[in-house]
Amino acid sequence: MIPFAKSSVVVPCVLCLASAAQVAAQVHQVSPAFDSTLAPGADCLPGLRGGFRQQILIDPVRLGGLAGRTLTGFSFRRDLGRAEALSGGQISLDVRLSVGVTAARDCSQVFVANAPAVSQMQVFTGIVTVPNSPPLGSNPAPWGVQNSVSVSFASGFKYTGGTLCIELDGRPVPGKEPDFWYVSQEVGVAGGGSATPFGVSCSTFHVGGESLIVEAKGLQLGSTMRSFVVGRPGSSPLLLVGASSHPSGVDLSPTGALGCSLYVSAYVAIGLTYSPQLPGFPNAFANLELQIPSRGIQPGTRLFLQSADLETALPSSQWTNAAGLTTSNAVDLRVASTPPVLGMASVTSRPVDAAQPMPATGEVDVERAPVLRLYYR
Q: How many other CB atoms are there within 10 angstroms of residue 339's CB atom?
């Protein structure tokens, strides 16, 4: 990482949109293909839908001509795919910038690994006003003051080259929360992976018949795969990961697990823990997020997952069968056959409330990032 000293003075302020300083500054379009047109995706930045932390990593190929320049701010704009009016408000925002040598596609789900504190420069802290954006007409002004939000840096940031990391900590101001103010997002064209369930769960604890659910979103080299295990409260869940499968299943009835089958072959087992049971919900849930390595694994790699519930810590009278074991359906996973080429990535933490510190880790998506404009001199 290229070291930058932290700014010793950061001036809190309430932002006016499209400040005079930014109007006078030069503009760099980070996503030129979608700068003035409908982008393929939309999502919320920190503060626009609850509080969370997000890093936006931008490769130098998208920052041509900025090396040696001083960055003075940035803007993001509303989603052009929603024609209705958007209700604005205010958010509390902290912005830190840094530069690294790791490509965006190789970023970590650990925030400090992408931007160590000693390399970061805090360029803004304060209240940002998000506009009430009217319904879009037939020819909207994407970067007009009613359709975009601008942040002017209290201290200019000298960009020297490398992967730019913009780290945002944002929370809505109580009583002034924006309402689903989605911003335009660029989405990669490499193509996604697939998650195909097969087999049958023998557990009475399931969602729509499935005790293991894997999202196809995120099955890309470098991104975070999300899976959900559903099971009996008080039991101990295991996630089985294998490189091959038994498509018809191996009957476990002879072991005492009547009606249960093993679908994953040559597996490793990962021990999980169920979250505290929610009132009114009979099922227990475990959420597992695993980052797919960006290197050392081939595009199109195929894996098989299955979960199992060990009930042996419960009284035997509560066991489902004589073995105290149930198994889930299985999932056939295929990582995207083409590696990511977006040149940007985002790392997004779980939501937090006003009293909680920002998380140290987040979910990596190497195929999605907001449409941004950077201002410089």
A: 18
From the DSSP assignment, how many helices (H) and strands (E) are in the chain?
2, 21
* Integer Cα distance of 209 and 79 in angstroms: 36
Q: Which of 119-128, 273-282, 365-374 shows the lowest per-residue confidence on average (mean pLDDT)?
A: 273-282
The answer to whether 308 touches 325, Cβ cutoff 8 Å, is yes
Kindly report, residue by residue over 52-77, the tens digit of the pLDDT. 999 999 999 999 999 999 999 999 99
191-227 tens-digit pLDDT:
789 999 999 999 999 999 999 999 998 899 999 999 9
Q: 18-47, pLDDT tens digit by residue?
A: 444 455 689 999 999 999 999 999 999 999
**What is the spatial order of strands in the sheet that 368-370 belongs to?**
41-43, 183-187, 368-370
Residues 186, 370: contact at Cβ < 8 Å?
A: yes
Q: How far apart are CA 61 and CA 129, in angstroms?
A: 31
- 238, 274 in Cβ contact below 8 A? no
Contact 336, 191 (CB under 8 A): yes
Report the 10 Å Cβ neighbour count for 266: 10
- Residue 133 host element (H or E): none
d(CA 265, CA 288): 21
Q: Give, in degrees to the nearest 5, the angle at Cα 31 between 341 and 217.
A: 50
Both tokens of residue 142? 């994407």
Residue 16 has pLDDT above 90, yes or no: no
Least confident of 51-65, 95-109, 280-294: 280-294
**343 within 8 A of 164, measured Cβ to Cβ:** no
Contact 261, 202 (CB under 8 A): yes
Distance from C-alpha of 7 to C-alpha of 25, rounded to nearest angstrom:
21
3-state secondary structure of 113: helix
Q: Alpha-carbon distance 155 to 123, whole Å?
A: 5
Asked if 178 contacts 88 with a C-beta cutoff of 8 angstroms, the reply is yes
Give CA–CA dist 60/343, Å, rounded: 8
